[in-house]
Amino acid sequence: MPLALLALAIGAFGIGTTEFVIMGVLPEVAGDFGVSIPTAGLLVTGYALGVVIGAPIMTAFGTRVSRKRMLMLLMGLFVIGNLLSAVAPAFGLMLVGRVIASLAHGAFFGIGSVVAAELVAPEKKAGAIAMMFSGLTIANVVGVPLGTLIGQSAGWRVTFAGVAALGVIGLLGIAKLVPEMPKPEGVHLRHELAAFKNVQVLLAMAMTVLGFGGVFAAITYIAPMMTHVAGFADGSVTWLLVLFGLGMVGGNLIGGRFADRSLMPMLYVSLGGLAIVLALFTVTAHNKILAAVTIALIGALGFATVPPLQKRVLDQAHGAPTLASAVNIGAFNLGNALSAWLGGLVIAAGLGYTAPNWVGAVLAASALVLAVVSAALERRTKTSSAVVAGAAPAEQRAAVHH
User: Fold this and answer.
1) Which element (helix H / strand E) includes 361?
2) What Cα–Cα distance (Å) separates residue 180 from each residue in 40, 63, 174?
């Protein structure tokens, strides 16, 4: 794998840390600002919505500059947003800081996915994408638990200041290691927009929204769920997040490996397994050991969907994939926002801290249905094309005969 993938993984590490660390310090943030847990959950929802909005806007802006320069600009925006979160005197300003940081997220992973795929041979594209996303998954093993530990001991503001420092390191890594890769000649914004006319691109994005949304329905409220339901101490949340992160690392590597071989079956297995495990979490959340195992499985099955879904979008949007790739990252976060909001609703309705798990199970099962529909439509299209291709020579022979 090219060394440039390491630079992309470094940037992904910083972004992954800021995206997920809020879940580990959510009770502390809520307490300091005097807001409820569901209200503090808006910091997750707001970040996710910022990714959804920022992905197409920042990527469209990026069509005017080289991909390397755009990646550097995005990391700079990421640093500014996290610094604002660290010093925010009020909840509203922290939410603004979260949104500013999130504007870099979708475009970074979208453009980064395209760069990663172009650095390797065609049969290794999903593996290269998985390598970049490994920074995001490793963040959940190292960055998020460490940030949670720091937040609980030294204060959550120190956590976000540290995340800003990670952004600076990512910026320097991109400047040093990523080669200059100008945008392809002749590819303009209208070509990028044309990819959205492909129903398979839209289906893949819908699977992304629902599938990974299922993960966030449960994980957004992991701290109160594990402390109030399973009976873990507050400090144990750090190690539970490590388990989640380890699951993500394994799932990402497995998803990248098998997506290059058998993409759709990989999606069937991961989405189906995710729906089952999330449903079971409503029961296993009441037992410490079973809850810990379930959290790791949610991470593994959830992130096993990421490389195949990202590769499917790149394949279906062939020729002008940058915007579609970035919007698909936004789709991940649209699912995060939707599920975090729905999870907050069921908790606020008095259904308990395990109720979001049912929300996640339904979302993941819906994604599986869309995967089956997408494969069926693809088979029908290939069959129709084969029939047309076979009929043409017969018509030509008849014309010659006459």
Assistant:
1) helix 355-401
2) 41, 14, 10
Q: Is 180 exposed, middle or buried (0-12, 13-18, 19+ CB in 10 A)?
A: exposed
> Over the stretch 22-35, which tens digit does the pLDDT of each residue have?
877 888 898 889 88
Structural contact between residues 150 and 238, judged by C-beta atoms closer than 8 angstroms: no
For 112, phi then psi, to 5°, come to: -60, -40
- Output the CA torsion sign for 129, 132, 138, 144: negative
Whether 347 contacts 353, CB under 8 Å: yes
Residue with tokens 């600009």: 73
Structural domain boundaries in the chain = 4-401
Structure confidence by residue, pLDDT tens digits, 64-110: 777 888 889 999 999 999 999 999 999 999 999 999 999 888 888 88
Q: What CA–CA distance (Å, rounded) separates 145 from 161?
A: 15
pTM of the model: 0.73
Contact 221, 37 (CB under 8 A): yes
CATH of domain 4-401: 1.20.1250.20
Cα radius of gyration rounded to whole Å, the chain: 21
Cα–Cα distance for residue pair 291/381, rounded to 1 Å:
43
Measure the CA–CA gap between 292 and 284, rounded to whole angstroms: 9
Largest Cα separation within the chain, whole Å, is 88
